Amino acid sequence: MRVRPVGVGLRYGVLFALAALVLVPFVGIILASVHPPDQQVSGLSLPDRISWENFSVAWNQAHFGSLVRSSLIIAAGVVPAAVILATLAGYGLTVLRAPGSRPVTGAFVLGLTIPVELVVVSLYFNLRDVGLSNSYLAIIMAEIALFLPFGVYWMSAHFAQVPIELVEASRIDGARDLIVLLRVLLPISWPAITTLTVLIFMWSWNQFLLVLVLMQDPEKRTAPAGLGYFVGQYSTNIPLLSAASLIVILPIVAVYLAFQRNFVSGLTQGAVK
Amino acid sequence: MADPRTTVVARSSPPAAGLRRGGAPSRPGRRRWSGWLYILPAAAVYLAFAIWPTIAAARLSFFEWNGILPPRWVGLDNYREIFDTPALYGAVGHSLVLVVFFSVIPVAFGLFLTAMLSGRVRRGMAFFRVVFFLPQVLPLVAVGITWRWLYSDDGVVNEALTAVGLGGITRAWLGDYGVALFALGLIGTWVMSGLCMMLFLSGVQKIDPSLYEAAVLDGAGAVRQFFAVTLPGLRGEVSIAAVITTIAALASFDLVYVTTNGGPANQTTVPGLLVYRLAFTQGDIGGASALAVVLAVTVIGLVTVIRWLTKERS
After folding, report:
1. Nearest neighbour of B10 by CB, restricted to A88, A154, A171
2. CB–CB of A272 and B60 under 8 A?
3. S-S: A195 plus which of A262, B35, B81, B145, CB 3.0-4.6 Å?
4. Are A156 and A90 in contact (CB under 8 A)?
């Protein structure tokens, strides 16, 4: 029997209060975003009339339409490539146990602690030297490299949990490495791969500093990077800034709500073991 | 090396499996050279776009270079300058203050709440989980813009303070010399607390209930139970939460860039911001690289300390 710390009612009271603290900022910018443009917004006030104009201004005149397109182009390059490379490497390191796989795994894991700040300056000059300034390809490659430490780590850990008998059995049947991966391991790896996919999409969507530096052309930046630039120009136009922020937030929130189990399990499950 | 805030987030999962595997002696089957075929593509991209720039940054930190003229070797001068210039080492100090807000407070708060709720809240947990994790998935730029507005003169924070009779202390929080850094830190507390709470609340449910029964038989009260059973049982979660949040605190460029941009009067500068400025507005690539190296060393140092402090000692 455990000591009952507090009553059930109080527990839920606290949880609801905290949930409100998390959600109030969203309510704040949603309300601000539907105020008529340039109207003074004060606190959590309701607008006199609901106006969607800020969204269309942000989308068209502030180029958020094309910024979102850049974000999607980069994510479309980064996500599949990073997931495939991480899966292949995890297979080679953990299942095939290539000679030297231990130090190589270590080198990838070390990458988890290195901040973007450390690489971004020299990366900019290296890429400039090879003529890859302002290039989507350069950003895509750099992001893949940034997300690989986690991806390799994640897939290695996943493959380490797969019963080895499964792999051995199909090898005895004469299956080659690639067939083992595609026919035996992939079908039981979709949950791990899905989680990795949504996490990498999120990181790619949210990446700021790397894009700010490697893409000097403001028109071709991603949505968050464009937002960071935008805030300098329109720092006092709260309704417009709020609408632009919501445009940047909504896609990732939608992915989060659709795949929240993957996000949350990625966060909590393994931590404990 | 991904977005530091989130990267490490998910790192929580894998180590477990890795460790478990370490526990079991080596798997049957021989090592295969053909494995390198599978590793090579990832290794090549990682080497070219992460390892190489890291080495290049370390090398550049010993040079004076404006990005155009040939670099000039200056030895440790760039590092000496960091430790001699208040504006530069001040930024490192600010980021350590942010560690308190991003990491120490959320972890302590999460533990307190876990003790209070005792992990026995089940109904409706799915809803709370979705809400509390939400700040983790948002781009920090958007979080920053939102809080700029909440903290502004007629923002929600001041409105709430006035409503509870604290109208006297209202101000433009991010523009106030004395409190801007703390106000910035509290944004981090807002982002990170939910993550810590959910990690601990789910972790506490995995503690063997018989441990609590034994503690009760020994006459332990709620407080003793917390320190004797709950806290040791959450060692792994505390370690992970502290590492994730500390890395995020030190890589707070996005947030600072859109909220205060280092102001007022350099009260909220952080290393990332100065790396960006030194390199791209002041043309001091060597200085920027040295500061980036100092930042990376700080991150690795703090992570090592946290790991050591939360290590299981048997």
Report:
1. A154
2. no
3. A262
4. yes
3-class secondary-structure state, position B72: strand
Domains of chain B: 36-309 (1.10.3720.10)
Predicted pLDDT at A269 = 52
Q: What percent of chain B has pLDDT over 90?
A: 64
Nearest to A210 by CA among B191, B276, B196, B80: B276
Domain ranges of chain A: 63-233
Query: A175: phi > 0 → left, psi -120 to 50 → alpha, else beta; which?
Result: beta
- Chain A CB contacts of B124 under 8 Å are 12, 15
CATH number of this structure's domain A63-233? 1.10.3720.10
Q: Which residues of B116-151 are buried (b: 16+ CB within 10 A; e: fewer)?
A: ebbbebeeeeeebbbbbbbbbbbbbbbbbbbbbbbb
Q: By the 8 A CB rule, do A262 and A190 touch?
A: no
Residue B21 has pLDDT above 60, yes or no: no
- B202-226 mean pLDDT: 87
Q: In the prediction, which pLDDT does B10 show?
A: 38
Whether A91 and B38 lie within 8 Å, measured CB to CB? yes
Token couple for B107: 């972890």
Q: What is the pLDDT of residues A210-230, one digit of tens each?
A: 999 999 888 899 999 999 888
CB contact under 8 A, A271 and B236: yes
**C-alpha radius of gyration, chain B, whole number:** 23
* CB B298 within 8 Å of CB B122: no
For residues B139-166, give the mean pLDDT: 92
All residues of chain B having their beta carbon less than 8 Å from the beta carbon of residue A21 are: 190
Task: Compute the distance between CA of residue A53 and CA of residue A186 in angstroms, rounded to an integer.
Answer: 47
Ranges of chain A with pLDDT below 70: 1-6, 38, 267-273
Instruction: Determine the residue of chain B that is closest to A237 in CA distance.
Output: B149
Asked if residues A240 and A234 have their Cβ atoms less than 8 Å apart, the reply is yes
Give the pLDDT band of residue B11 (cuts 50, 70, 90): very low
Mean predicted confidence (pLDDT) in B182-211: 91
Whether A98 sits inside 8 A of B247 (CB atoms) is: no
The tokens of B262 are what? Answer: 């280092």
pLDDT band at residue B113 using 50, 70 and 90 as cut-offs: confident
Write down the ipTM of this complex: 0.91
Phi, psi of B260 (to 5 degrees): -115, -20
